[in-house]
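Lecture notes, unit on protein representations.

Consider one protein chain, 310 amino acids long.
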Amino acid sequence: MHVDWWSIQIPIPVALAFVATMGYLISQWHRPVVNDIVIRSRRELKRAQAVASELEKINWTIRQSLEKHHASVSKFKDRVGRLSERQQEAAWKDLCQEAESLLKPTLQLATQLAGAYDEIRRQSANLMTFTEVRTDPLTGINNRRGLEDALAAQLALMGRYHSPFSLTMFDIDHFKQLNDREGRLHGDRVLQELSQLLEECVRDTDIIARYGGEEIVVLMPQTDLAGACLLSERVRFEVANRLAITVSGGVTAAEQSDTAESLIGRADTALYSAKNAGRNRVFFHSGNDTQPVAEEKPQEDAAYAIASGQ
């Protein structure tokens, strides 16, 4: 029997109730996305405020040092002018003393400016991560270019000041099967949820980047291998308990002889060791071989507090 749906008279109250219900369901469906954006925006704003504070501190320190040194140079110039009116031998001896008195603060200023230059480079790398060309449009975290810039800055700091840093590469287990079974839209949603969870777990100073496909890298400044392993195991544990997926991770610490390629290569090797060992686990690369990180809930001990910034 053919039914003419357009001829059915639906009471206005029922129609309005139906529209209101659909509107509510649609708003609830969009709410997680909005919440993700709000959480990410808050974290990015907090990180931007930290960058601004560091740059302001650098500016104030340099300005104070330059003003102090300017006074020393003016004083030296005046004394040299007065020495020119005295006998040559006596003037020469006093000139040596005056030059010696100016040498130390001048060298100190040079060292301070060199340190400020490197710190400005580091903060510049942080600023780069806010630009659209370095942002992954799906997840809102850094893209591969953002990671490469951040790595270059960290390697430069390590070369000059031996500043330690570590890196972990995470990969979603069985992601291809997930995409095939649930569809790519669901896979995209999983990547967004993982990125949000990572932002909750890491420190404000850590840099998260989508390296490619389902691989996400966490760059951890001022963190040794032990601290990076603790933080990475915490992430693995949280993902397994809070999301409908698991991840495997490969951890490594930077060495003085490293390039970006060698560092990523070690993390990738450790990641594949974790995959081959059964997935849902973290391996670290010691520089010689790969070993598993203990699979247990991280404890809030001193080393973990340092690693996670809590």
